[in-house]
Specification:
Layout lengths: L2 H8 L3 H9 L5 E3 L5 E3 L3 H13 L4 H7 L10 H39 L10 H4 L2
Helix pairs in contact: 1-2, 1-3
C-alpha cells in the first residue's frame, strides 16, 4: 500500500504517516520509483497509534509501546510493559487534575474578589467540577 492509501484508510494525513515512519513506529520499503510501500498491517498499526494519541499519549509513550502495537493476543511481556505505561499516564493525569482544580479555585477566588456584589453563586456546582 502507498502512503496515500494508508492515510485514506486511517483518516490520517500523509504527513502524519511519514512522521510515524520517521519516528520508527511504522516501516515501509522503497520501490525502485522511490515510492514508499507499506504492508497492509500498517493500517491497524496507524489506527492504534492514532487511538493512543487521542487518549493523550505522546509519541515518546507510543514509541515505548511500539513493540506491543501489532499483537492480536497480548504478549505477557507487552502486557506488563503496557500496564506500567498506562499507570504512569494515569498518575500524570491525576497530577494534572489536582493542578487544574487548584487553578480553578484560584480563579474563582479572584472572580469573587473582583465582583462588587460578593461571591459568585451563579456557577452551578456541576459546572465547577466539569
Amino acid at each position: 500500500m502507498r502512503v496515500g492509501e494508508i492515510a485514506k484508510a486511517t483518516g490520517s494525513s500523509v504527513r502524519s504517516i511519514r512522521y510515524y515512519e520517521q519516528a520508527g513506529l511504522i516501516r515501509a520499503e522503497r520501490r525502485e520509483n522511490g515510492y514508499r510501500e507499506f504492508d497492509p498491517s500498517a493500517v491497524g498499526r496507524v489506527r492504534a497509534i492514532r487511538h493512543l494519541l487521542d487518549t493523550g499519549f505522546t509519541l515518546d509513550d507510543i514509541t515505548a509501546l511500539a513493540g506491543c502495537l501489532d499483537h492480536a493476543a497480548p504478549d505477557p511481556r507487552c502486557s506488563a510493559q503496557a500496564v506500567a505505561i498506562y499507570r504512569d499516564k494515569l498518575a500524570r493525569i491525576d497530577v494534572q487534575m489536582r493542578t487544574l482544580a487548584e487553578l480553578r479555585g484560584r480563579i474563582e477566588a479572584q472572580i469573587d474578589a473582583l465582583q462588587p456584589d460578593g461571591p459568585t453563586s451563579t456557577i452551578a456546582p456541576a459546572a465547577r467540577h466539569a
